[in-house]
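Worked example

This section walks through a single chain of length 158. The input is the sequence exactly as stored; nothing has been trimmed or padded.
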Amino acid sequence: MAQQDEHHGTFGPDAFGRGAEHAARFFGTPQYILGQSLIVIVWVALNAIAIGYHWDPYPFILLNLAFSTQAAYAAPLILLAQTRQAERDKQSEQRAEETRQHAEKMASDRVAAIKSETDRLVQLLDSNTKLTQQDKELTEQIAALTREIHTQVTSEKG
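Given that input, the structure is written out below as tokens.
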């Protein structure tokens, strides 16, 4: 599932939202900053050295208006992109939490199964110990009876 490419939050999977994210990413690139700086340098230089026609003389009000317009559109696009990213982050955190809870449940189940098997082994060991003790007692009784029979048999012959 490609969560990065697909978004179904507040703004939906629309092209406008995706475009806003692309624009916000572009506004933060060195290429954009360098390009904008070059435009400003050329703009100011052309208006400063123009001999006959200054389309935007100092204090460069038209350039200022262009930057204000750009900022008026860029800020909401950046906020939109941040909101979409925050929603994706929230979904990612929810999936991580669900995964963690599932892992904890599996570990808990595993511990319970190990405890159950350990208890069963302890019971088997206790049973084995009791059987071994009974076997020893019976062997001792057989040995005692064998000696007694041997004593009786040998005393009757003599």
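What to look for: Residues 1-5 have pLDDT under 50 and may be disordered.
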